[in-house]
Amino acid sequence: MIEVPVPMQRDPLRPLRYVLRVPLLLLHIVLGLPPTLLLINRFTARWTLDGERVDHRVIRAWSGGLMRIFGFRVRRIGEPLRGAHLLVANHVSWIDIELVHSQRVVGFVAKAEIDRWPLIGWLASRAGTIYHTRGSNASLNGVLEMMVGRLDSGQAVGVFPEGGTTGGDEVRTFHARIFQCAFEAQVPVQPVALRYGEGGNAQTTVAFARGENFLQNFLRLLGEPGRVAEVHFLPPVMPGEEGRRRLAEQARERIIGAMAS
Known about the structure:
Blueprint: H1 14-30, H2 33-39, E1 48-49, E2 52-53, H3 54-69, E3 72-77, E4 86-89, H4 95-101, E5 107-111, H5 120-126, E6 130-132, H6 137-152, E7 157-159, H7 180-185, E8 189-196, H8 203-206, H9 214-222, E9 227-233, H10 244-260
Parallel strand pairs: 3-9, 4-7, 4-8, 5-6, 5-7
Antiparallel strand pairs: 1-2, 8-9
Helix pairs in contact: 1-3, 3-4
């Protein structure tokens, strides 16, 4: 399904990429963060431009700039849904949220630890992330309630139904329970396939290495060669009589099909 790259060899250009990208990243933070902070507020959330909230446009601009600094050329296939829907995607690394947000801003469900990550945590919170404490049924019940509330109010919600990042070489089984909100709110589910490198040949490179934490992955990706990052917005699936398990399977099947194309 996904081509696994050969083991990395010493990259003599990596130091040069750091020399070029670190100053760009600092400029993106120092010059881009203040206006981004000012333009993401309750007032711009009420304003729209061509049918899109102004604060969402600001987040898309920030995320798109961050992707370029990390050397990714974003390629979009298909069209993101507008209005209330459940967006579900395969999960490789922290940068998945930035890739999606460069094209369509949704409030993701994410592990509570992300709120403490420097920069990325701040952006995730400003974009309306719903935080979940892993292993806590009480937390999950609260998250599901919040998801239904947002969907009922006409907003989109995003989730990684594998329950966590993978090694990049597979799309794990989707947890069906998280799809219950689509039934309760009666909204479509849009599967989204995230693929790094031509034909997905950089999935395992972008993924967290064994024992690698956020900061280590962040710094390693900053020095990686430039490559394409694809976000496939696939045809939506409507909740039906077959139940949430079948809905989860259909969404996963469409993502796997896009990854293999």
